[in-house]
From TrEMBL:
Organism (species): Meiothermus ruber (strain ATCC 35948 / DSM 1279 / VKM B-1258 / 21)
Keywords, sorted A to Z: Membrane, Transmembrane, Transmembrane helix
Name recorded for this polypeptide: Sodium-dependent bicarbonate transport family permease
TM regions (residue ranges): 6-28, 37-58, 70-88, 100-124, 130-151, 163-185, 197-218, 230-249, 261-283, 290-314
Pfam family, one: Sbt_1
Phylogenetic placement of the source organism: Bacteria, Thermotogati, Deinococcota, Deinococci, Thermales
Signal sequence range: none
Source taxon at top rank: Bacteria
InterPro entries (UniProt xref): Sbt_1
Length: 322
């Protein structure tokens, strides 16, 4: 299967088309709207489902297969926020607060992009490691903390402890970690008991969720003029750099073609659930137009449409075209 065919499969997948439909609905000012309560329910469902499946897979995975990918993920959680911060400060001339706020988003991970990557691998009939959801939890938190530490060291003030508490108590980390623990303790047999709810309907729920995200992303498009050309370029180039780094480290850690690709996609993604909540508390003076528009309005659609096939092509190339 060549790269163009993979791109076609990705662009014509129900999830991506639902995202595009959400954008169109907003641009034509449709009265389409997903109730806030349903949007919250869908996000809870997706995060808990990921955690359950990851924990169940981890329960049957030998430690010897996990520790190297986990170490590679920890390395990414340190490198990516530092790299983003340095680029934003030196090349983008952003101030400390906004550079740290954006770096927190690009060091962390988008759970929905992760889901889209694993769904793409299923469509490409490429197996991935079952413990990947555990790596999402590993990558989610440290990168945000590091970025906020950078800002605190430069500025002082702000409640880092409160921001860290917000990260761990936030629904994304709580559901991912909690679901992983539940899945690990109950194992595959426990997952089988709830498969009718948390496994089989997963892709359909994802389509609904991306429909809403498309509408949210379209609302950020009007902010592109205010964020400037540099941030638009940053939102496309930085994912390519961090995604390539993630694929490379995943390959070095012994991950499969699909697993290394998903890890690369995680590194390339930008958080828009946990990171905004933490930044809002620790760096209230940061401009949301910068970090939300970059992560949700630029990087997310780029990864969803073009980034994922590119990271897969890189992973196949690093694995010798397998």
């Amino acid at each position: 299967m060549d790269t163009l065919e993979l791109l076609r499969i990705n662009l014509l997948s129900p999830a991506v088309l639902a995202f595009a439909l959400g954008i169109v609905a907003t641009l034509v000012k449709s009265d389409l709207k997903i109730p806030d309560a349903l949007y919250t329910t869908l996000s809870i469902y997706l995060l808990l489902s990921i955690g359950l499946k990851g924990g169940a897979a981890l329960a049957t995975t030998p430690f010897v297969e996990v520790w190297k990918p986990a170490l590679a993920t920890l390395a990414l959680s340190v490198i990516t926020p530092l790299l983003s911060y340095a680029v934003l400060r030196r090349l983008g001339r952003f101030d400390v607060v906004n550079a740290a706020a954006i770096a927190a988003h690009y060091g962390s991970v988008s759970a929905v992009t992760f889901i889209a990557a694993t769904t793409f691998m299923q469509a490409a009939k490429q197996p991935v490691e079952g413990f990947l959801p555990t790596l999402v939890a590993i990558l989610e938190v440290p990168a945000i903390v590091i970025a906020l530490l950078i800002a605190r060291r430069s500025l002082g003030g702000g409640s880092l402890a409160e921001a860290v508490r917000e990260i761990f108590a936030g629904k994304s980390v709580l559901l991912l970690v909690g679901g992983s623990v539940m899945g690990f303790l109950t194992g595959p047999e426990g997952l089988k008991q709830v498969a009718a709810v948390f496994v089989d309907p997963f892709r359909g729920v994802l389509v609904l969720f991306l429909l809403e995200l498309g509408m949210i992303a379209a609302k950020r498009l009007r902010d592109l003029r205010s964020v400037g050309g540099f941030l638009v370029g940053f939102g496309i180039v930085m994912p390519l750099i961090q995604g390539s780094l993630g694929v490379w480290l995943g390959s070095l850690a012994g991950m499969s073609v699909g697993g290394a690709m998903v890890l690369g996609t995680m590194a390339a993604s930008a958080s828009y659930i946990a990171a905004p909540a933490a930044v809002r508390i620790a760096l209230p003076q940061a401009n949301p137009s910068y970090y939300l528009t970059a992560s949700l309005g630029i990087t997310f659609p780029f990864n969803l449409t073009l980034g994922i096939p590119i990271y897969y092509a890189i992973s196949r190339w690093l694995h010798g075209g397998s």
